[in-house]
Write a structure and sequence with these properties.
The chain contains eight helices and twelve strands. By secondary structure, it is an alpha/beta fold. β8 and β9 form a beta hairpin.
Length: about 230
């Protein structure tokens, strides 16, 4: 029997991979596209396994994709242990389905299945900060100039110093995130941090890595191929 202390220190990662890949084109969803010799999703799972081989991986997939994924695992000899959970109609529902399979203790990361290039220190720092403060998300500085659309149909320049681009994994104390996902869905929920903040909780920021791109277009796939060849 596992001790309470063991459960308290447990780490989980919910990998959300429900995209249909419409911007990528073709019939194969983007998470299954091959890059650097293997499907994108396998690289993503490996990143968390390299961080901690004992982490419990929960892969959230649409039911219609699960047989294909199992076929890919056999084809590529992919043996990293993970549980498959059926996704819902939205990302919010998919994350909630994953959370419903977890105990309240420990820490949980939620990560996009199409971000295979997350750095080990980003994962580690996110878990460490979430253990301290309860909620942590990786961000990077904005390099482009920004403009804000105004109600009169015009726009105005805003200081990019005041803004950050948000990445995953977003890591939380499991009990906190489960409580947050009991809230009804609203359109403002664009990521897990926004769901937690809707309860009045504060989310801590940690430094992300520029290479941690979200693969959504063919150009992203080409960039990932280059970056993964140097990992």
């Amino acid at each position: 029997m596992q001790s309470d202390n063991y459960l308290q220190n447990s780490k989980y990662a919910i990998i959300v991979a429900g995209g249909k890949g419409l911007r990528m084109g073709g019939e194969i969803p983007k998470q299954f596209r091959p890059v650097s010799g293997r499907p994108v999703l396998m690289h993503t799972l490996e990143a968390f396994y390299r961080y901690d081989p004992k982490i419990e991986l929960i892969l959230v997939l649409p039911e219609s994709h699960q047989t294909y994924w199992k076929t890919l695992c056999l084809q590529y000899g992919f043996s990293i242990g993970h549980r498959i959970v059926t996704g819902g109609p939205t990302r919010f529902d998919s994350v909630k389905n994953g959370l419903d399979t977890l105990p309240d203790a420990g820490l949980v990361a939620v990560h996009d299945g199409v971000r295979p290039l997350v750095a080990q220190d980003v994962i580690g720092n996110a878990f460490a900060e979430a253990e301290r403060s309860g909620a942590a998300i990786p961000v990077i500085e904005v390099s482009d100039s920004l403009r804000e659309l105004t109600p009169d149909g015009k726009s105005k320049a805003v200081s990019r110093v005041l803004f950050r681009s948000v990445q995953t994994p977003q890591v939380f104390k499991t009990v906190l995130l489960k409580e947050a996902y009991r809230q009804p869905f609203c359109d403002f929920f664009t990521d897990d941090a926004s769901v937690v903040e809707a309860m009045g909780k504060t989310v801590s920021l940690i430094k992300g890595n520029q290479e941690n791109i979200k693969i959504t277009t063919p150009k992203d796939l080409l960039l990932a191929e280059i970056l993964l060849s140097h990992v």
